[in-house]
Amino acid sequence: MIADLKTFIERERPHWKELERELDRIRERLADLSDLKYARHVLALFQRTSSDLARLQGSSAEPELKAYLENLVGSGYSEIHSATRDRRNFRPWRWLVRTFPQAFRRQIWGFWISLALTIVGALLGAILISKGVEGREAIYPFPHLVNQTPSERVAREERQQSRAHSENRDDMEGSKTVFSASLMRNNISVTFRAMALGMTWGIGTLIILFYNGVILGAVAFDYIADGQTVFLLGWLLPHGSVEIPAILLGGQAGLVLGRALIGWGTPDSLRTRFRKVTPDLATIAGGAALILVWAGIIEAFFSQYHEPILPYWVKILFGSAQLVALAWFLFFSGKSKDGKDESAS
Which residues lie below 8 Å from residue 165, measured CB to CB, with a gap of 6+? Predict the structure, then answer.
């Protein structure tokens, strides 16, 4: 029985409002119940609100307030128990088609910076390579890339594959699986390094993205200037259309990590900032790793075959379709018909 209802409401309302705010933060993934201290605090608010509702049930006054508290207690029960249930029942397909693209879109600013920096690096790479052999020596890490023009490489590879095709043999038979695993390991290593270097306040991530852009721009300019544009597209698009975006995702995660470390524009503590971005970081890194596994398979089993074994137009068409599909997936998967993100839970 409540003796003074007005005093009771004034005293308890701040706790109800706080519970309401915390439930909103949990729904928006700005907070989670994995922190034991925070979980205990939310549970205490929930239990207090439930107790207040029980005390009001005996009163015929304030029907709107009782409806508000019933709704709040119901929401609290749902959030607290669904958080526990979700951790137990990880659903891979839902994670892939909803959680991953939604995490990408929440941190889209990092992706745009990664892309812009890569483009700037590519322009510099093209300028350097246009200076001739000195530019090639400054950029390419391997001597055979310096001493061999794109035309020479294309002629050699097409000659070798023409001979293998006429003799009905596969020069890569027996080595494709090992080659694919090596590519996956190398690409995943670069991507995770770009993400981990976010711990250097993002500086290391920026350097890796810029350097990758320089090499990419240099290679592209080298082949285009030498009249090997079709070969370049047929060689790079099948695996590059997913590999390069995956590395940009790694850069995106690194920049998100660096921003959380610096803490620009937020009053939150370092611990709170890390807690907020950790789910998105883990999701983006996991998604990038999956894409790179696919890229490694494509590069080993598809990209290495050229004309006359595999027409260039087939490879270019495949790579272009794959790039469009990946872009659609990242920007639109997990959205409802009204264009809003569907619940990831």
Answer: 308, 309
Contacts of 300 (CB under 8 A, 6+ apart): 172, 176, 177, 179, 180, 183
- Show Cβ contacts of residue 124 under 8 Å, excluding neighbours closer than 6 positions: 213, 214, 217
Other CB atoms within a 10 A radius of the CB of residue 295 amount to 27
Of the candidate ranges 105-119, 221-235, 290-304, 308-322, the one whose mean pLDDT is the lowest: 290-304
pTM of this prediction exceeds 0.85: no
SS3 172: coil
Contact partners, residue 304, CB within 8 Å, separation at least 6: 172, 179
What is d(CA 334, CA 103) in angstroms, rounded to the nearest whole number?
A: 10
Residue 35 has a pLDDT of 67
Which residues, listed in sequence order, are joined to residue 335 by a DSSP beta bridge?
Answer: 341
Report pLDDT digits (tens) over 199-224: 898 999 999 999 999 989 988 998 99
Tell me the two tokens of residue 75: 């929401």
The DSSP code for 99 is I
* Distance (Å) of CA 145 to CA 218, 228, 235: 11, 15, 16
Q: Mention every residue, 6+ apart, whose C-beta is less than 8 A from residue 334.
A: 97, 98, 99, 101, 102, 341, 342, 344
C-alpha–C-alpha distance, residues 173 and 167, integer Å: 14
- Of 202, 225, 218, 95, the closest CA to residue 151 belongs to 225
Give dist(CA 66, CA 101) in Å, integer. Answer: 39
Tokens 């397909």 belong to which residue? 93
Question: In the numeric block, which tokens belong to residue 229?
Answer: 């544009």
> What are the backbone angles phi and psi of residue 130, rounded to the nearest 5°?
-70, -10
